Amino acid sequence: MDVDPWRVHAYWNVAETDIAAARAQLPGGGSDSTLVLRFTDLSPRAEDTAPPHERFEIKVKQARDNRYIGLWRDAKHYSAELGLRAPDGAFVAVAGSNEVSTPRGGPSRKLDLRQVEVRSPRSVQSPPAPTGSDQSDALLRDLFPVRVLPSDDYPVAIVEGVGDALDESPFPDLADGARDDGDAGPWSALPPHAAPPGVVFGDAALRAGDFPVVDAAEIDPYRAAAQEAKARLLTGIDAALPPVAEETVSPTDFDLEPQPLPVPEPPADAVRGPVDVAAGAGQVEGPPPDMPGLPVSPAVEWRPRIPLEGVLAGAASSPGLGAFPVQAWADVHIHGWCEPDSPLILFGQPVPVQADGSFSVRLSLGQGPELAALLAHLRNRFGDGGDR
Amino acid sequence: MPRGYQCIVLHAHLPYIRHPEYESFLEESWLFEAITETYVPLILALERLREAGGRDCLTLSLSPTLLTMLRDPFLQARYLAHMDKLLRLAGREVRRTRGDPAFAPLARLYQDRLEEAVAVFDSRCGRDLPSAFAGLQADGVVELITTAATHGYLPLLKTEPAAVRAQLLVGAQTFQSLLGVPARGAWLPECGYYPGLEGLLEEAGYSYFFVDSHGILNATPRPYYDLSAPVVCPNGVAAFGRDAESSRRVWSREEGYPGDFQYRDFYRDIGFDLDLDYVAPFILDGRTRIHTGFKYYRITGPEEHKLPYDPPQAALRVAAHAEDFLARGRRGVAAQSERGGPAPLVVSPYDAELFGHWWFEGPQWLEAVIRGMAAESDSLAPTTPSAYLARHPSLQSVTPSASSWGEGGYNAVWLNPGNDWIYPLLHDAARRMNALARQHVDAVPGSLPYRTLQQAARSLLLAQASDWAFIMKSDTSKDYALRRTRDHLARFNYLEHCVQAGAIDERRLQALEVMDHLFPGLEPTVYS
Hints:
Chain A has three helices and 20 strands. By secondary structure, chain A is α+β, with helices and mostly antiparallel strands.
């Protein structure tokens, strides 16, 4: 590739076996041969007073590498070969390049005033409308377990849990930093010759079983809880700001005025409250290893949950709706165990603690950051207590 | 008849950034800021010019990725959510600065501008800015052109001509399908030209393109009228050369108008100046300081200490700078007209996002320049390339020289030790895409193999965007550029493997179609 009128860039990636085969063709097995880039000047004579087919070579070392090559003339045409050169001048090529033309570095001496008519623009035939990726509701539900619900001004798809991140890099070391001179850097991580680079996704797959599908009946309490959470968030923003003069409140600020902190009573088990515990089902969580001897929490049902960061809340389109935005409502399940008589406080409200010390609450998240403080009065094994 | 013409070209482009997988994403704000600070003010200025009877005021290049994002309901909704947050901040600022004679009017100014941007975007334009621009073109106020599909830097893709061809054809088709009319001219990404490209431009239906000054001055044969007239390639596609002097007056950090001490300082922003607790609710993650757009100081001078921004004083400088620009343009065409030949033309292309975003007063200046030309159109009149070529359909035939408008004038910005590792991968992927399309030329539209081929082509196009190589050279957002290049190549590899193995996972394909949701009608055969 031409970098500018006086510099080109070459990269190459050949198999060591090809180099060995080329070496074998040289007299004496090519043991004293040198790997070189051989440039051939292909510039037409009419454009250039230099001798045609001028050659020059640059020694290189590696089968995969790149090099910037300075030139002494602009407006030239070159091709290059990577090969082995013996001391007697014999040369065996391993790979050849495309032709490269360097730009002119100054005005041409040629003057020709011939004129040409400007061509008319023409329409490029538009391709047919897509037929394959209609992203129908059914497919989306299958892919992302989506429920499409009407919203105030645009359709909203609620996504319960969506699969792994799709964009794991196939080149984990490839672009960790810019290449420094003398350091192959990312070049060293290039895939070897003839091997297509990398895999694409991580081990986790988008399998249907990975995604808990939400029934429509479940969504309404989630939405209600999410709206409450949003109200809490806005109130939190307001509380975080310094007080200002009230008489200059602008129309855009009216909804930031302090509101009573809504601390909803648990409306239903689905939103807040104890989670049914199926004894012996799924994963059993034991006490932390650094606190042995405390009672073991009963088992809770375990379903694979996908980290929020991997949520692909695909804003997709469907034929009926056109494209639409997506919001993902999520809830946090906080469960654990404590001394049976310890008071537990979340958002200023007591959290029920079961007779065996286990507790379980689900907290719906609204948009934006949420800070949930869970306070417990704990006693350690020596009888000391304190809020944590 | 005017003695000469001034052709102002704005190139509006942003890379395709859309992350539905995140609740919010920093780089998406590039689009939101550009809508508020550049595109909406530009529409308002052009509408005022239309009402004043202006014609051929401006040439505007809208990149296919930008058009796609502006038409994306997901990003439109996110923009309004972003604006809602900024309006809350504006209200806070109005109250915080109340009683401060220097800052209170500025807070109110920003509040008014934000409210106006929302009203224009949401109500007047129905969230559809491309159609607003198309309406201005239909009324003869602007000429709209476009660029390569994902703004691939064509001189470094040319080793695989099919890749260049696809960039140009998909770009032209996207423009036409989104705006309903073909683009007459092409903006070459980064003004990157190489001899022979005109053949592919012709194939994509274009009748003209732009190159940097030395692309014309070093053309073969030598251009008789230097930069004061466009030239025509042997195949009939015209080339317009950038006027270096008028470009420097706007671009140059030292000599350019935007550096005037009365103009608003871009870097002093309450996102950095005020307590983090105060701005936290309005920035991305509550922790990372970013620009909010509330900037209260003028450039003042090279010193750290800055004085409050004074819009009336800045407006005086806008008028003076517009007059200076026009005076120089008039002198230039007067001198050139003595040589005879076609009416002298001054071509002044700029990045659109300079106006309003970086140079706050830029849209005002632009409007003042165009109004100034209209007032004295016998000496210097605004024009568009198509209008000029209609008057001068026959021009000197030359082949421009390889060039770009990047630093150094050639390819070094996009090919250097900071980013050169991407090219073996991009070239290899282009070769494989070409082979893939040829092998599966009979794939039935709508079938899984066809959709997979389409998505592979989308992934390749996205990996080729010049933005990533450019950003890798700089420090800001470098990790993001690296990630985007890797991700798109990874997706291409996967999709190629699916087609070749005959094992296509429709769920994964669907997921990729949702994530990289552009060029819906892309035909894989564009590579075959």
